[in-house]
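Following the same procedure, sequence and fold were stored together, as reproduced here:

>
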Amino acid sequence: MKILSVAEFDPAQVLTRHRAALRAAGVDYRLALHYRYYESDVCDWEASSFDSDGAESLRAFAEEADVIQFHPGIGQPWSYLSLDLRLRGDGDELPFGTGHGVNAGPRIDWTSVGLRARRIAFFHGSKNAAANARLYAGEYRKRGMALWTSTLDYAAWMGATFIPSIVEVEGRAPLREPDDPLVVVHTPTDPSNCHTDEYTQLVRQLGVVSVFKHQRPHAEVLRAKKQAHVGFDHLRGAFSVNTLENSALGLVPLVGLRDEMRRRWPEELGPRPPWPRIESVADLEIWLRKLRDELNMTREHQERAFAWSQQVWNPGNLGAYILRRYEEVLR
């Protein structure tokens, strides 16, 4: 199977990790990025260094591909600055190349290249996409594209297939010891969308030690997480890569997860995550208070989260699950 994934950038390295897992399973998965968001992002073509040889090889692979996958609704910076619906010039209509005008380099126009491939619109989420999810779903269905998403809430809103994000981190956070104060880490991508104000008020009120990281290098964020016991993500109703990373490091993951999202958990993925049941600010307060006051509870939930990540949410299981979804979309 040949898969080409084309994206403006790779949010939370979802595509980089899919690429690694599927290549390990024998799939020829290649990634074309307009730019690398993190230095550690891995891709096969990058627009900033795109030349005629790159254009030729990308075009040739696109013509052979079984699947070409686009990632609309998360363009930078418009997707978090505007809620205006944007149906044109994104995803499959955004040419791949090095700019416009007389100095433009080679470009690939997806309206005329790779037309035999099955096309997928894979949504990762943004403020703009959340506000217009059903409208985007309708538009890309009209274009004959399969709809995929990396979060359960978008899967519900769009009637899309849930494709999990793979998390790979080295090491783990220490279990809380008897003399340790409870340390909670909060690392939002967008504080205004992650209930940061409510969280900050709670930790101050409860006297909990909090570590905050925003717009810092990923390596620095990981170091901070490995020195904490609990990780708070947000209360939006579905988990994100941040929660998965917290779990994989052996933190107690605190995230607002609605019952509807729990019910949507794909049975093929194995047991649901053993995270504390939280939906509201009041629930968050209850759990922060419990964890602050109960050492053994903190340690128990750290162990549960880490064990679940190792046994269920590992690259081998997830790679096999994602490959089955590609096989289904090609039938």
Residues 194 and 234 are 4 Å apart (CA to CA).
